[in-house]
Write a structure and sequence with these properties.
The chain has about 220 residues and is an alpha/beta fold. The protein contains seven helices and ten strands. The strands form two sheets. Strands 6-7-8-3-9-10 form a six-stranded mixed sheet. A four-stranded antiparallel sheet has the order 2-1-4-5. Helix 3 crosses helix 4 and helix 3 runs parallel beside helix 5. The longest helix has 18 residues. The chain is globular.
Length: about 220
Amino acid sequence: MIITARNVCKSVSTGEGELTILDNVNLQLAAGEVLAIVGPSGSGKSTLLGVLAGLDSATSGTVKLLDQPLHDLDEDGRAAVRAGAVGFVFQSFQLLPGLSALENVMLPLELANIADARSRAQQQLELVGLQHRLGHLPAQLSGGEQQRVAVARAFVATPSVLFADEPTGNLDQATGNTIVELMFQLRAEHNTALVLVTHDQNLASRCDRLLSMHDGQLQ
């Protein structure tokens, strides 16, 4: 299994006491599988994505990512598990504003000490139709182009799993559909497992499996 989560709980302290965000979540994801997680805002979807990816830690329970027990690792250890093996696509694109499109896509390769970063990043940007935008900064790109850069960056290291949080949320329907097609095209080429948090019914309908989250519980 790419991901195994058992009895995962996440709570935070507030002025009114403990707030439970994730309540006894159990989940498995197989290699190459595409999973959609849907549910109302505030139900815990994005928090679950962060815990599964090791960006956040659970209050209790266990998470294994790529056979590595994240609950036994500190932040640096979790980052080492992700390096070169995990990709991300976010609603807000999360591109570094001072780097060109090419440099943004090169970044995960450089962090993972993968050779030929420039040529591999250039090839990936060509695959998403941005060969004419290599030197452009994010502010010089449209929203759809920025998300194409984000998709190229997510797939450039041929990750085993990609986490996407509302990847079409800031895009119009036509542009969102283009991004969905790109993600599934690249996923098919690399057999990458996908975990997608989405309100996009078109995107959810393309997934192998759909789970619904309500009040911190998966259904």
